[in-house]
């Protein structure tokens, strides 16, 4: 009985660690993508040509970095995804004009 419990507990711990690692690297990658798109948007004049999208992307990225620094990787990734989306919308808006 104890051996089965020990095996189950070991598998559970390994599974928990693997999930937390995935969130870390996923959030880190998404923050990098958001930073890249935000700099592209800034370079294309997004501050003046698409101010709503630029401001949204910037603030979501700031929030993402705060969450990441507090080891909240799930919310950090979600905010970085929103930042990426806002930056893409800003770039699309600029291309329309």
Task: Describe what this molecule looks like in 3D.
The protein is mainly α. It has one domain. Helices cover 92% and strands 0% of the residues. The chain has four helices and no strands. Helix 1 packs antiparallel against helix 3. The radius of gyration is 19 Å and the shape is rod-shaped.
Biggest sheet architecture? none
Mean pLDDT: 89
- Structural class, by secondary structure, is mainly alpha
Spans of 5+ residues with little confidence (pLDDT < 50)?
A: none
Q: What percent strand? A: under 5%
Number of helices: 4
Assembly type of the chains comes to single chain
Radius of gyration: 19 Å
Order of helices and strands: HHHH
Q: Let me know the number of strands.
A: 0
Q: Work out the count of structural domains.
A: 1
N- to C-terminal distance: 70 Å
Can you tell me the overall shape?
Answer: rod-shaped
Share of helical residues: over 70%
